[in-house]
Write a structure and sequence with these properties.
Number of domains: 2
Structural class: mainly alpha
Helix content: 40-55%
Distance between the termini: 31 Å
Shape: globular
Number of helices: 10
Strand order of the largest sheet: 2-1-3
Order of helices and strands: HHHHHHHHEEEHH
Largest sheet: 3 strands, mixed
């Protein structure tokens, strides 16, 4: 991945194009993040794109070092007066390269995973660049920060059926690379795409 930010911009643009087709009611559909609507998820993507490390630390201190509280406030702040206004705002941040502290690949991951949080409940599909999905999976497989992906997939063997990629040891979990990525980030809806004795292990975590 020579320029992850270019991929982030392309994926933001592709999601914006999908959102353009929605009516206002669809924006209130529950996303794969159980506490968030589609509109909330998009507001979160905007908030992440407009964040910087100094701003992040300042807001964390202002919210008593409570990440969830800070995130909820940021979503409320970025929810525009209407879905149309929010979509316009989302398009405006397409090419931004600012983010909270963390490796660039984590923000690529945020973009892909939250795009699926939006698309899947709406019945929308996207063929993401495989190299991007693999890069994000390679990051999450070794990270427990915030979402605990490393712990979640411990003791199972993940194997992609649409590219050459495998990780771990133990009971098998096989399926599309994107679905493996979503499963390791806790999206249980993706488990229905997967097969193998290790699927029930993931379902219980």
């Amino acid at each position: 991945m020579e320029d992850m930010w270019a991929v982030v911009a392309a994926e933001r643009g592709a999601l914006a194009d999908d959102l353009e087709r929605l009516d206002d009611a669809a924006w209130e559909t529950r996303s794969l993040c159980e506490k968030w609507s589609v509109r909330d998820a998009v507001a979160h993507l905007i908030a992440t794109a407009e964040m910087t490390p100094p701003k992040f630390f300042g807001k964390m201190i202002g919210n008593g070092v409570d990440f969830q509280k800070m995130t909820a406030k940021e979503i409320a702040d970025k929810r525009e007066a209407s879905p149309r206004a929010e979509l316009k705002h989302f398009r405006a941040i397409r090419d931004r390269r600012t983010a909270p502290p963390g490796p660039k690949v984590s923000w690529l991951g945020e973009t892909i995973v939250h795009s699926e949080d939006v698309r899947r409940p709406l019945g929308l599909t996207r063929a993401y660049p495989m190299a991007a999905v693999v890069a994000v999976a390679d990051f999450y497989k070794g990270s427990n920060v915030l979402i605990g992906s490393k712990r979640r997939i411990d003791g199972v063997t993940l194997t992609a059926t649409d590219t050459v990629w495998s990780h771990g040891s133990g009971p098998a979990v096989e399926g599309p690379m994107l679905s493996l990525l979503l499963a390791m980030t806790g999206r249980k809806a993706a488990l229905d795409d997967l097969t193998g004795a290790g699927v029930e292990t993931l379902r219980g975590r």
